[in-house]
Write a structure and sequence with these properties.
The protein is an alpha+beta fold and 208 residues long. The protein has helices at 3-21, 35-42, 48-54, 56-70, 117-127; strands at 79-84, 105-112, 114-115, 131-136, 139-144, 150-156, 167-178, 201-202. The protein has one domain.
Length: 208
């Protein structure tokens, strides 16, 4: 990425951090720690021109909804949430999906970092004939307490060993133009949404 693009990237993410600080229920990002660092980690592999096109409000809203899902995750448990674009106000607890582009539904996942996880998720969604329009897969280094409460997102994986007390997680954000038969697979039904995240192999390393 060029210096100019990098500066543009930081500018839009810094502006998004201001939106995120005001997001209902975020109040500091829902335990993610430094908001600018969280957003840079979350959108690390998204091109600057795409971030500029999305705009800071959408960038903040998507990250805020994902952080809200991640706020409590007991050890070893995968969190999966499917939101429709017409289920209510976006700022309500069970509110409407927010996407970086036009969406019919959004799937957000937070789970232990695993090999082949994205393949497992996309295979399952394709099996349900869901129409995937965008997929983000930030692999984040986080700190949680013994209850699973999120206290910090310290960065994205960069190849360095995780520090004591840190764990590595995969956060996956999928935007769908249609749910296909997945609309008949509520996340509350045991074994349904969970199957999206259990086909991968546990990662043997915890790179940072």
């Amino acid at each position: 990425m060029s210096d100019t693009a990098d500066e543009a990237n930081h500018d839009v993410l810094d502006e998004a951090a201001q939106y995120l600080a005001k997001a209902p229920g975020a109040g500091g990002g829902g335990g993610v720690g430094d908001l600018s660092r969280f957003l840079r980690s979350y959108y690390r592999y998204v091109p600057a021109e795409d971030l500029t096109a999305y705009g800071p409000a959408r960038i903040a809203a998507v990250a805020a909804q994902h952080a809200a899902l991640a706020a409590e995750r007991p050890q070893g448990r995968a969190l999966v949430r499917v939101r429709s674009a017409d289920t209510g106000p976006a700022d309500s607890p069970g509110g409407a999906a927010v996407g970086l582009g036009p969406v019919r539904a959004v799937v957000d996942i937070v789970t232990d970092d695993m090999l082949f996880l994205v393949d497992s998720v996309t295979t399952e969604l394709n099996r349900h004939q869901a129409d995937i329009t965008l997929l983000l897969h930030p692999r984040l280094v986080v700190r949680r307490d013994v209850t699973g409460a999120l206290h910090d997102v310290s960065g994205s994986l960069n190849g360095a060993p995780a520090e004591p007390g840190e764990i590595t997680e995969s956060w996956i954000h999928v935007e769908l133009a249609s749910l296909g038969t997945a609309s008949r697979c509520p996340t509350s039904r045991p074994g349904c949404a969970a199957s999206w995240t259990t086909c991968g192999s546990p990662s043997k390393t915890s790179p940072r």
